Amino acid sequence: MKRYLLFLLFALFGATQMFSQTTLQEFVIEKDTPPDVTEIFKEYGCTPEDGIIVYNTTIPDLEFSIPDAPNRLRHVSSFDETNKRYVLCVQPTDGLGGYTKYIVLVNSKSYKPEAQIVSAIKPGLAQYYSINPKVDLDKKINELVEKKFAQMEGKSQQSVVSTQNQATYQPQQQPMTKGRLTVSTNALYFNGIGENKLIEVLTYTNKYKVRFLPKWIKTSQYANNLQISCDRNKKDKPRKGYFFIVSGREKVMINVVQAGKNQQNNVLTSNQIAQTVENKTQEQLPIRKGTSLTVSVNELVFTSEREIKLIEVTTKAKDYKVSDFPRWLRARKSGKNLRISCIGVTKDIPRKGTFNIVSGREKVQISVVQEPVNKQSKIIAENQSQTQQTKTNVEQSQSQLTIGEDNSKEPSAQYWIQEGVKNNNAGNYEEAIHCCNNALDINPNTGDAWYNMGIAYGREKNNSKASECYQKAAQLGNKDAQKVLAFMGKKWKW
Length: 494
Fold this sequence. Notes:
Blueprint: H1 2-23, E1 27-31, E2 51-57, E3 62-65, E4 73-76, E5 85-90, E6 101-108, E7 114-119, E8 126-133, H2 137-152, H3 163-166, E9 176-178, E10 181-183, E11 187-190, E12 196-202, E13 209-211, E14 217-222, E15 225-230, E16 239-247, E17 250-258, H4 270-284, E18 294-295, E19 299-302, E20 307-314, E21 321-323, E22 329-334, E23 337-342, E24 351-359, E25 362-370, H5 373-399, H6 413-426, H7 429-442, H8 447-459, H9 463-475, H10 479-488
Parallel strand pairs: 2-8, 11-17, 19-25
Antiparallel strand pairs: 1-8, 2-5, 3-6, 4-5, 6-7, 9-10, 10-12, 12-15, 13-16, 14-15, 16-17, 18-20, 20-23, 21-24, 22-23, 24-25
Helix pairs in contact: 2-4, 6-7, 6-8, 7-8, 8-9, 9-10
């Protein structure tokens, strides 16, 4: 009977311990950057023959032990409130007795216990680590998003972030400077998929090397930038490591953390958290249409050939942008007008698509349709008949004008050539070709028009038509076209 009672008491004790462990918080142990100045730990009870382990933390109730070799832990200092750290004095790992590494167990009343493997402990040398509370990123980001919404709506500016998250340690992202060697950051955080990041490295000699690089990290040097890339993490657990950037006698240690394949990083920089909060805020903001963003049309219909149309955009914001644009369309801003052009279609199937004009939190969707070739032939025939009827009406009206009336003159060929030059300089190559064609309709023997048309075709990468235009311009005596053909190694016929 006594045995059953003892077993029952033991089971109840184990259950209470498990329940208390689930309610406790967690902390993370990471390698920390050593100071530039060598420290002496005599005041902490360490001797020159001892190896030193320093834990920087803000948690004041931690307890340290080495279960597999308790006699090798010679002294543990109390919590140093001034420097915010604990100092452990241990016997070096010299391999005597089979001890090449120690398992340091860290306990606390308010946190779950954590174990850490420490190796390569040498006499008189210190290893630095940091112990920080584990951050619930989703909760923290959601609280910051709520705070930003409260500020935007003019509510109370009281912080929504809990005091526990406010006391959470954030890794330093300030530029690390050591003598003449300067780097933009000393900590990198990668997702589990793998990505690339840059570190700006400034040295007096413009030469540096990378040492002790983990196998899952690769580097590439581009002048003052060092590109860091990591492979996909195939395990659930995050990977941690570090490497050194060395220039002459100076070196800086870079800490690297990569999340597991199904995890996020437990520690983010303040800039990364701010960017995540901004993205989530923009996603949750309602999109309002028609309040301050207006467009002249919300539907465009193009023919099967190349065509240009304008949309007048009015907004109270400084600028607007175009998103989700189909590949067969081109857009160019011109003041308040948005210039939309389409590529010619060769199939008898109509093309349809949409794109958005976005200004701040507002967007308007524009639908686009381009007619197929077969339907276009009918439209061209109708347009030609209408054009012919219009010409007939114009001729009849001109015949009825009296001699004394002031008739407006049509633009000259030189006017259209100048317009073509302006459009070429502005990058409107299709308009430049149109202006040059108008000049050639008035005077087909204008070499300047052929030359400017060749420039427009060349910038559109239509080399065959550009060469033809240069040939005709050279035949008409345009010296610039002759120089271009001579540079290209081609000849022209007089």
